[in-house]
Amino acid sequence: MAAHGDEYLPTWEEVTVPELKVTSIALRAIATQMGKYCDEPSKEFMLCRTETGDPRKCLKAGRDVTRCGHEFLIKVKERCANQFQEYTDCLDYVPHRQLKFSFFGCKKLMKAFDQCILENFNQTAPEVGYFSRVRVQSTSQPRPDPLQGQPKPSEEIRLEPGE
Q1: How confident is the model at residue 139 (pLDDT cuts 50, 70, 90)?
Q2: Within a domain: residue 52?
Q3: Would residue 107 count as lying in a domain?
Q4: pTM of the entire structure?
Q5: pLDDT tens-digit profile of 96-106?
């Protein structure tokens, strides 16, 4: 996207947010639970990105998603650290299977982690297909202009009927 002189560009402070500092194994282990925990801010962000087509208008929503992820990781560390660590260790340790990151062989530890999340967060693990469902989002965001981004005609064009 090229910027013109009169377009608003966000400052570095607006676009810089603390990153989630977790390994790929830990992120894979926690992804479904975090996705469900942060479902509302994630849907708001994706709705903003889809409807506006302008990432600058969605910076706040993006920060809200990251903030939610940080919040969830901190709470998991406080309440379910042992179950989470055992589960990620299982995913990372691969002598009994060829596919790294495979959930095969770690289902008991995954269930223990899911049970800890249920007891401490009152959140069940999302069933298969949960994130693929079509869901209607209730939002306070204004509806986008359907012609946004479309060129406006500079002069009225008259069409005459053909012969």
Answers
A1: confident
A2: yes
A3: yes
A4: 0.78
A5: 556 666 777 88
